[in-house]
Amino acid sequence: MDATRSMRSDAVTVRSMAEDMSRAGADAALPAGYPGYLTIDLGALSRNYQAMTRRVAPALAAAVVKADAYGLGADRVAPALYAAGCRHFFVAQFHEALAIRPILGDDAKVFVLNGLQPGNEEPCAEAGIIPVLNGMEQLAAWQALAGSLGRRLSAVLQFDTGMSRLGLAPADLDRVQKAIEKGGLDILFVMSHLACGDEPDNAQNGEQLAEMQRIAARFADLPLCFANSGGSFLGAAYHGALVRPGIAVYGGAPHGNADNPMEPVVRLDVAVVQTRTVAAGAKIGYGGSHVAARQMVLATIAAGYADGLPRTLSDRGAVYFEGVRLPIVGRVSMDSIIIDASALPEGRLTLGARVEVIGPNQSLDALAADAGTISYEILTSLGSRYFRNYR
Ligand SMILES: *Cc1c(COP(=O)(O)O)cnc(C)c1O
Fold it and tell me: Which pLDDT belongs to residue 335?
């Protein structure tokens, strides 16, 4: 955490240098020492958020900024979303809430999805952070604190409607209702989470909605908070009073592989640090797992699995240069990847050139699919070694 923070502040210093060099993110010169250029388009992020609010109106849209805003930097993303009108922010961990609370306006609400952990009650109340209560013991602890402080405390009540991950058990409905009636808590939302919101045809969506409606009937005057990005595209029945999109705001496809209506937010370009021509029969990469079938022009780029490009991309994915697809050959290393640049005119790809890893030719979702994973995992794994250009 501390190491990341200090790298960030270094990056802030270098960032202004690079902005002087060029206004165009991906085309700017790469500051010395940075192997890759991660462009994060805060304008596109804000437009995605606003598109979401239009989609779900009259419901409101929160933004999920857990895991450092899906790896993109909560210190930049959360204030940008606040400026775009967002007033409800969800994080996963209490310390993530502490980090963003001071950089948002007082009218913003910050919620902790993973709930109220023992020992966090007082700091949570003191910082004005709102816990999502996921169990009877959390509810009791928060209510007890409200009693001892002599003031009302806000909370969200989450119910498990069929994911078995987080939330009060519907079997405890009577107990929950009795506890709430004792007073002390302002329940801002009754909440649940969809397990299959990204799969519109999955019958589990309807089952969870029915369960949510059954629970909601017991809390007639309380607003509901149910849908994630995928759920927000399932129709008004899923919207409740507040939706909680994450990935769609960051430009990921809300419904897996279907057409993506969101604007891309992230572009990733990585520097070439070596080129060579090898003869047929040459072994390429760790384990010698790829053997050149012909003479090949290879290039080594300066990012690997430590930079969020998973080993599952070995001999599978590709990068792009001037629109030409350059396949990954051999295994992905920790800090580098070897690509087949044979499709380019000789000498076209030189030391210091940058190839597109995520951009107009290759979406975040396409890269994730090649890696056998999801956009979420790629984004949250990008790490701290790229130069970050916020636009
Ligand atoms: C992560 C998360 C979200 C956001 O999900 P997306 O699919 O990224 O929109 C919403 N609600 C909960 C409870 C989550 O854990």
Answer: 97
Ligand 1 atom with minimal separation from the 198 CA: 7
Tens-place pLDDT, residues 317-370: 999 999 999 999 999 999 999 999 999 998 999 998 999 999 999 999 999 999
Ligand 1: which residues within 6 Å by Cβ?
Answer: 64, 66, 113, 193, 228-230, 244-248
d(CA 132, CA 59): 20
- For ligand 1, the distance from its centroid to the CA atom of residue 197, given in whole angstroms, is 10
**Residues that are catalytic:** 66, 286
Q: With H, G, I as helix, E, B as strand and everything else as coil, classify residue 43.
A: helix
- Whether the per-residue pLDDT at 15 is higher than 50: the answer is no
User: What percent of the chain shows pLDDT beyond 70?
Assistant: 92
Best residue for ligand 1 mutational test, from 244, 249, 250, 380 (most atoms within 8 Å of Cβ): 244
- Report the C-alpha gap between 142 and 89 in whole angstroms: 20
CA of 195 to the centre of ligand 1 (A): 10
Distance (Å, rounded) from C-alpha 217 to C-alpha 390?
Answer: 45
As a whole number of angstroms, the distance between CA 205 and CA 198 comes to 10
Residues 6+ apart with CB under 8 A from 181: none
Indicate the pTM of the whole model.
0.92
